[in-house]
Amino acid sequence: MRRGGTTIAAVATPAGVGAVAVIRISGPSAFEVARAVNGVGATVSPRRARVRRLRDAGGAPLDEALTIAFSAPASFTGEDVVELHCHGGALTSRRVLEALFAAGATAAEPGEFTARALANGRLDLTQAEAIADVIRAEGDAAHRLAQEQLRGGLRAAVEPLTRALADLLVRVEAAIDFSLEEHVYSVSSDEVVALAAPIAAGLDRLLSTYAAGRRIREGVRVAIVGYPNAGKSSLLNRWLSEERALVSPIPGTTRDTVEEVVERGGVAVRLIDTAGLRDADDPVEVLGVARARRAAEAADALVVVADCRRVGDLGFVLAELPARPWVLVWTHADLGARPATATATVGTDAGAGTGAASPAPSPAPSPAPGAALATAWMSLTDAGAGDGADAADAALDLAVRAVAGPAAAQDGVLTRERHRECIAEAAARLGAAVEAARAEAGHELVAYDLRASLDALGALTGAVTSEAILQRIFAEFCVGK
Question: What is the widest separation between alpha-carbon atoms in the chain?
Answer without folding.
Answer: 87
